[in-house]
Amino acid sequence: MLSRQDALEKFNSFNPALYAKTRNFLNGQISRLSAHIKYGIITNKELYQYIRDKYNFVESEKFIQELAWRDFWRSYAYHNPDQIWIDVEEYKTGFQTSDYSDELPTDILLGQTPTVVINHFIQELVNTGYLHNHARMYLASYIVHFRRIKWQAGARFFLEHLLDGDLASNNFSWQWIASTFAGKPYIFNLENVHKYCHQTLSIDPQQNQEIDGSYEEISARLFPNL
Question: How far is residue 34's CA from residue 75's CA, in Å, rounded to a whole number?
Fold first, then answer.
């Protein structure tokens, strides 16, 4: 992890307008300061003030929104500590909580699933302690919806490995993916991964058949009771 001074100097070149346009791409503009925020080396307030003073609101709105989400989850967790590890609502998937497995299987823990891009994300998480936010969403969706495993198991897995793992942001984001704190489940397909990851990952449909198909096809396969 960079020192506070080095991190702030690196942040001088951060472009919030470019962040807004490219942040969902694996090679897009991101700050990489989440671990510094977690450990209090740099605060949300500092980053907000810096961006506010240097850029206009139109340029910086998306980055400021993301800072606000972190504060929101922490505030929500503070006022609702009993909901950090339990389902806030029922799953919106046509399945009951009891239909989901309690533990991650070995192939996920070892990064040896039938889906190569998922294995890449798992290995990056385990080996580096970091994962791009979009990749976190893909991996969380895969665990909960493609493999039907309780979000709590995935949330624990992330917290065991992420250097920037924030309990509130992590767990409530998993609940959003799972649909236990959202109106619908978050799913993805190979086409979406190709759009946002193809410049950094080699994506072969034959090696990623679990996630290949249209959203309609995948939704029908994952949620037959809806």
Answer: 17
